[in-house]
Amino acid sequence: MPAVDLLAGLREIVGDTHVVTDPDSVAPYAQDWTRRWHGKPLAVVRPATVAQVSAVVRACAAAGVPLVPQGGNTGLVGAGVPQDGEVVLSMARLDSVGPLDPLGRTLMAGAGATLAQAQRAARSAGLDVGLDFSARDTATVGGIAATNAGGERVMRHGVARFRIRGLEAVLADGSVVRRMSGVSKDNTGYDLVQLLIGSEGTLGVITAVQLDLIRPHKIVGTALVAVRSVDDALTVLHAVQHDFTGIEAAEFFHHDGLQLVLEHERLARPFDRPHPLYLLFDLADDDGRPDAFEELTELLAGLDCVRDVCLVATAADRRRLWELRELQTEAVSAEGIPVKLDVALPLNQLSLFERRLAEVVREVARHAVPILFGHIAEGNVHVNLLNAVEEDADGAVTEAVLDLVASLGGSISAEHGIGLANRRWLPLTRSSADMSAMRAIKQALDPEGILSPGRMLPEPSRPAHKDPSRPNHSEPSRPANSEPHRPAPAKTGRKTQNEAGHQVQKSASSRSRSSR
Ligand code: 2HG
Ligand code: ZN
């Protein structure tokens, strides 16, 4: 079918104003926040209902034109960015929030509702979503589901898949699956909800999500602890977790990342003198200990490896400390376009990883400046390498880092996903049996390759290690100790981050900035 016929058909489905083709209006949908991924879509289509999504998918399938669902466009791996000629399926208008069921502790949300909107609805009922991260004002629940996002609360409440009870999605043939009974025990057949979570738009278009809410504990304080090394940070975390049940969120960043934040965001430095590494965590009032704050102060003061501590209780002071961590992404981006990797290591390999990373990177990109930060409880390191994009033109830098991660038994994508950025390296930690099973699932649910083709899995006709976008790549070897593992939920769950949203941000500074 000629493109003009498809566009006319799409206009009939969603209305003229919601089929966007003029270049200026399309631009924000066509490039990602990192400025690394971009394409020239045929059009941006903005449906308002699940019936319209279904009709759009059917029309695109009939015309043989692939489409890519997009939420807040806050993803970092190119999963929600169009490739040339694709239709962007913006989920922005499916932004309803509610109803909330306080008894069953669930909240319905359209795919285009932002995380912050869902948080506000849950909090107004004394509950919470149990997910949080800096892009909360832009990232959408549909994108969060599609990418199985993580974030800052994972250590307590789990990644997105632990916080989602049900969902609604449109499959590649336009049919609609809806599993939103709210029943928490349901072993009726294959778990399509969990299959679609984390499928990055390749198996279905998520149109609504039923969030599994948590009963929040009151946060009594936030601590910023200065230490010498990652090992020291883990020692502190271990000691604190031994004495306190309610540790929520444990983040880390280095001196150089803090410097960038202080420079670019004009914030006050937290300590008089610099320290190599900082551990940031929240203490919740789980045990109802009236003196928890004082007891924590005493515990930290007694630990040899602690060089300095800033312990605060008010909302404003807590936000000030959290900004030092949450603004790292923006500060890095203000400095330049980084090679951005998101990896996780077994905790006992974290320190070795950081040491070896410096050597490995120096060999392939002599002037690279690594800025490392992340979610230390999960061993999740956000590796941002400044001054290395040129050297990574054929993937050499990425490959060196991911080879190291795989050799240490880690995960090459902890919470950001695979998208276009990481697909070439999937075989590093996924066996050929894994790859075949994943391909079979894709083939069964999307035989024509209409939904987000080329994301996550390399094109079906080509072996994974011969990705045409990386012609010089040689086949990576699979380390003996890299069997994929299932992350165990923490006491009650965990947190996540990623894609989607109802509005595409145009500048680095609009990505996060929200109240905590
Ligand atoms: C975070 O934890 C996000 O702040 C972004 O996952 C990480 O910018 C990054 O590399
Ligand atoms: Zn993160």
UniProtKB/TrEMBL annotation:
Transmembrane regions listed in the UniProt entry: none
Top-level lineage group: Bacteria
Cofactor requirements of the protein: FAD
Keywords: FAD, Flavoprotein, Oxidoreductase
Keyword Oxidoreductase applies: yes
GO biological process, one term: respiratory electron transport chain
InterPro entries for this protein: FAD-bd_oxidored_4_C, FAD-bd_PCMH, FAD-bd_PCMH-like_sf, FAD-bd_PCMH_sub1, FAD-bd_PCMH_sub2, FAD-linked_Oxase-like_C, FAD-oxidored/transferase_4, Oxid_FAD_bind_N
Region (Disordered): 446-516
GO molecular function: FAD binding; oxidoreductase activity
Residue stretches of biased makeup (Low complexity): 507-516
Chain ranges of the FAD-binding PCMH-type domain: 37-216
Record field: compositional bias (Basic and acidic residues): 462-476
Keyword Ion transport tagged: no
Family from the record: Belongs to the FAD-binding oxidoreductase/transferase type 4 family.
Protein name: FAD-binding oxidoreductase
